[in-house]
Amino acid sequence: MCQGCLEQERIALLQLKQFFNDPWGLRNWGRGKENSDCCQWEMVRCNPFSGRVIELHLDHITRSGAYNYLNASLFLPFEELKNLYLGGNGIVGCIENEDFHRLSKLSNFEFLDLSWNDFNSNMLLSLSELSSLKSLNLAGNYLQVSNHTNGFERLSKLRSLEILDLSYNYLNNSILKSLNDLLSLKSLYLVNCNLIMASNHTKAADLENLSRLNHLEFLDLSSNMDLNNILSYLSSLSSLKTLILWNCGLKGTLSAKGFMRFSNLRNLKILDLSGNDLNINILTSLSELPSLKSLRLAYCNLLIASNHRNGADFEKLSRLHHLEFLDLSDNTDLNNNILSYLSSFSSLKTLILSNCRLNGTLSTKELGNLRNLKVLDISFNNIESLKSSQDDQNLRFVHLEVLDMSNNFFNNNVLSFVSEFSNIKSLNIEENNLKGLVDVTKFDALRSLEKLFMSYNKLDQFVSTNANTSFSKLKTLYLNKIFPEESSVPAQLSLKAFPSLKKLYLKENYHLNQTLVIQTSQVLSNLEELFLDQSPLSINFLQNIGALASLRSISLKNCGVIGTLPTQDRNNFEGEILNVYFSRSSYLNILDISNNNLSGELPRWIKNLTYLQELDLSSNHFEGSIPEEFCYNAELELLDLSHNNLSGSWRKQPFWKHSTMDQLPF
């Protein structure tokens, strides 16, 4: 194994740092003797044996609004460079005679990401010289095609190219002709490229060009207009494994003939037709795709007639013996009858029926055959209860891991029902009609539970009545607005059953007074993120926050507390900050106590928060100069002291040592 990077490549990286001129994104490059090995720098990956740089992740590190001309020769010292990410940096072009053709000397160069910059079509000529390229991402630039030569045909020289992304550019149908010689192409992205395949806009030759890509396995044509006329030509792409036609203006009657030819796509595994106006009759054609594993038909205006006459079309989909993923969400003309047509889909692992006008009581009998189901989403319906029958008493959904029942009308009785699903990892019952007492002991069988979402119900108590109940795997708990303002009963909350909790959301809760049962230092010893925004709290509870040694993030917006505890954004705190509150929170990354009535000098104990990355003390009444202790926070990236009463030479000192701070607001 190599002991470190090459010196010439280390110097070249420091030159790149000057080009990008970003004090935050590349802040650890070359800082200190202990950081001399550039292979350990963030965004850099080296060959572990030769020590040569093979990958650079330099995407989205230039400040917004900066427009740069790139010197591509800066990358020549990296002789083994394989992957280069330069997306989202506001690059408008290259310096004259220093464009991308220079990189043709790099024999291992295979991957180039230039997405979301400001290149135009002139740069295509230089890119065509990179004969070793296998993947090229040009999405989100200012590329255009015209009746004149536009450079796209030059990309045909990239004989090894397997992945090409031209999405979100100003193209048209003629781009298909320019790409027809890329015979090695396996993945093609043309999302939102102004393709229009209506009969009065399309030449047959354009569509035939697309059918020449015999090795194409992935094709994304999403968000183009009226692609009905292209469907018949897509059927000739026999190697296709993934086809995405989301929001392509497909119409049921116009597209029917094209879908009938889809039976030729014997290798197709993933098909997304969401956001089109389809007819349920197309399901007959889709049932002829023998390899299909994933089918998305969300927001397609699918309709089951009141007389069930067209229900047989759904039943035909059961021929897809390998189908594992089915999304029928946002088809608001479906109803409870859809369940009976899905009962024979025994291979399904994910079923999404969100916003499908399911209502009343759902019988689980129809789901009895879905024994491989891992994910079930029935959110945003009008379901009031679930019903088991004698025929499905043994139904336990033994493989179910994710259940989303949010935004329905379930009451407390549903808690006993879901407790039967012993392998669930994520349970969402937000925005239902749960009321009064919720005893988490009812979930006692859910020992695999990792995430629980119960926000926006109307509870008085969320407690555990059994001292032995413990959800040792639960890491995330959402309890936003479960104790409503209009309630006259003091809220009771016990979290002792969740000893491993890392993220706790308690926003918009009321009546969390002295009866609030949270033993912070013991029960929440592993907590990293705490959100209590807009929850009126007593100062006696808030004082315990400093005991949470693992805390990384605190959010206490609009809590209406008067006292001496740091908070976030527009509280009513008054007085000086006391060190005791953060005596053990040394791992804090973000501290925002802006827009308060804090006064006095800036706290010198800030130096004890050695991992602090963002500090916002703006819009208070602090006085005096900036203490030298602020310089000791080596990780600090963001500092805002604006709108205070500070004085002295603070604008330049003591931050002259702090390279990451020179353009931050004071």
- Percentage of β-strand residues: 15-25%
What is the oligomer described by this structure? single chain
- Strand tally, please? 35
Specify Rg, calculated over alpha carbons. Answer: 30 Å
Give the overall average pLDDT.
84
Q: Biggest sheet, open or closed, and with what strands and sense?
A: 21 strands, mixed
What's the number of helices? 12
Structural class: alpha/beta
**Outline:** flat
List the uncertain runs.
Answer: 563-580
Give the CA-CA distance, first to last residue.
Answer: 47 Å
Quick overview of this protein structure:
The protein is of the alpha/beta class and 666 residues long.
Produce the secondary structure layout.
Blueprint: H1 7-20, E1 44-46, E2 53-57, E3 68-70, E4 83-85, E5 91-94, E6 111-113, H2 124-127, E7 135-137, E8 163-165, H3 175-178, E9 187-189, H4 204-210, E10 218-220, H5 231-234, E11 242-244, H6 252-260, E12 270-272, H7 282-286, E13 294-296, H8 311-316, E14 325-327, H9 338-342, E15 350-352, E16 359-363, E17 375-377, E18 382-387, E19 402-404, H10 414-418, E20 426-428, E21 435-439, E22 451-453, E23 458-463, E24 476-478, E25 492-493, E26 503-505, H11 520-523, E27 529-531, H12 539-542, E28 553-555, E29 574-575, E30 590-592, E31 597-601, E32 614-616, E33 621-624, E34 638-640, E35 645-646
Parallel strand pairs: 2-4, 3-5, 4-6, 6-7, 7-8, 8-9, 9-10, 10-11, 11-12, 12-13, 13-14, 14-15, 15-17, 16-18, 17-19, 19-20, 20-22, 21-23, 22-24, 23-25, 24-26, 26-27, 27-28, 29-31, 30-32, 31-33, 32-34, 33-35
Antiparallel strand pairs: 1-2
